[in-house]
Write a structure and sequence with these properties.
mainly beta, 12 strands, 4-stranded antiparallel beta sheet, 40% strand, 1 helix, 158 residues, OB fold (Dihydrolipoamide Acetyltransferase, E2P), 8% helix, elongated
Length: 158
């Protein structure tokens, strides 16, 4: 049974009034039981190994939820501009390990300045600023993975 078929079963349980579905194909068995707040999937192969995966009900959680680490000390002033990652990849603050960072907190930037590099599929993409201002906060650690549209910098416009 493929993941797509399991997802369809979860959707069926979430949308219908059914509280439990069990499907068996050969030596593969899937049991989906609907709880008040969670849907539990139990997968069992030919060996006596059972895996339990807990997922939120489909009706309440978007399918493409991305969990990012919480920013604990980010300024809350709404007049800052957030510069976000234009792609998925690995964030680098320097052009190479022995070079200084492209930008640091307090640096004044202008449109076209290189802020960082995001490596995607062995390609090193320079991320250029589309705004002018002062870097207030760097929101990502060096060499850490970033998602599409993930905040990288907070900039105070000038």
């Amino acid at each position: 049974m493929e993941l797509k078929e399991i997802k369809e079963l979860i959707k069926l349980v979430a949308e219908s009034g059914v509280s439990e579905v069990e499907v068996e194909r050969g030596d593969f068995k899937v049991s989906i039981k609907k709880a008040e707040e969670k849907t539990t999937i139990i997968q069992q192969a030919a060996a006596p190994v059972t895996h339990t995966i807990e997922v939120a009900p489909i009706a309440t959680a978007p399918a493409n939820t991305i969990h990012m680490p919480a920013v604990t000390s980010a300024p809350t002033v709404s007049n800052f501009i957030t510069i976000k990652s234009p792609m998925i990849g690995t964030y680098y603050k320097t052009p190479s390990p022995d070079k200084p960072a492209f930008v640091n907190v307090g640096d004044v930037i202008k449109v076209g300045d290189v802020l960082c590099i995001v490596e995607a599929m062995k390609l090193f993409n320079e991320i250029e600023s589309e705004v002018s201002g002062k870097i207030v906060k760097v929101l990502v650690e060096n060499a850490s993975p970033v998602e599409y549209d993930q905040p990288l910098f907070l900039v105070e416009p000038m």
